[in-house]
Amino acid sequence: MTDTMPSRPPVAGAEPIIRIEAVDKWFGKFQVLTDINLSVAAGERIVVCGPSGSGKSTLIRCINRLETVQKGRIVVDGIDLTAGGKNVDSVRQEVGMVFQQFNLFPHLTILQNCMLAPMRSRGLSRPEAEAMAMKYLTRVRIPEQAQKYPSQLSGGQQQRVAIARALCMTPKIMLFDEPTSALDPEMVKEVLDTMISLADEGMTMLCVTHEMGFARSVADRVIFMADGRIIEQAPPQQFFSNPQHETTRNFLGQILSSHQHAH
């Protein structure tokens, strides 16, 4: 296989599962996204990287309408998010999200944390929701933690619970916003391994991360953002070996050198 071929070419004529067209977004007077255009095929795995303040987290938060955009269109799984209303709820059922902070409910057990949304939004019975929760806690390799509370788990385990909780809604798309940046270094690998195994199953994934090893091994495409714009995008081999823009080269130089010092 040549370096430039995506590992799973999109089906010809298939509607992209995510389509972002000419999106602009402001926070007050500050323009945080400028003319963003991006299509994502079902099953594609995309890593979004870039310096702090480049708009990358805002971009993925727009995909499940945690942020609204002032201009342009975002269509997710055929549903126009920019049309608002009921569309937002239907999209949120299809899109799982994992944040920097784990956002687990501290007063609920791990099992209850995972059962809550499927019972509320998908109308699952308690036994169904429990079976679903156990299935995905097993999937992220921590079924034995089901009866504990979040505070009794390590950060890496809590983040894996957050992934299991998102999977319990059987989403078509998973969004990750710097899922390992709040973790101690020794816990990063267990969370990335969980994400790699998800990617191997063909889940559509958009991941904002600085973990370049993850980008190399998992991404079909790496998207580099700076100052609220998409500066370049390419398959990982090409992105790392031959970045086209000076901004990208500087960013990669900093990231790779800081990683060498860290290890």
Q: Could you give the topology of this structure?
A:
Elements (H helix, E strand, L loop, with lengths): L17 E10 L2 E11 L4 E5 L6 H8 L7 E6 L2 E2 L5 H9 E4 L11 H12 L4 H14 L15 H13 L5 E5 L7 H16 L3 E5 L3 H7 L2 E6 L2 E6 L1 H6 L4 H17 L1
Parallel strand pairs: 3-8, 3-9, 6-7, 7-8
Antiparallel strand pairs: 1-2, 1-4, 4-5, 9-10
Rg from alpha-carbon coordinates: 18 Å
Distance between the ends: 32 Å
Strand order, sheet with most strands: 6-7-8-3-9-10
What portion of residues is helical?
Answer: 25-40%
- Helix/strand-derived category reads alpha/beta
Tell me what portion of residues adopts beta-strand conformation.
Answer: 15-25%
What would you say this structure looks like, in words?
By secondary structure, the chain is of the alpha/beta class. The protein has a single domain (18-262), classed as 3-Layer(aba) Sandwich (Rossmann fold), CATH 3.40.50. Helix content is 39%, strand content 23%. It has 9 helices and 10 strands. The protein has helices spanning 56-63, 86-94, 110-121, 126-139, 155-167, 185-200, 212-218, 236-241, 246-262, and strands at residues 18-27, 30-40, 45-49, 71-76, 79-80, 95-98, 173-177, 204-208, 221-226, 229-234. A 6-stranded mixed sheet has the order 6-7-8-3-9-10, with helices on both faces. Strand 9 and strand 10 form a beta hairpin. Helix 3 crosses helix 4, helix 3 packs parallel to helix 5 and helix 4 crosses helix 5. It is globular, with a radius of gyration of 18 Å.
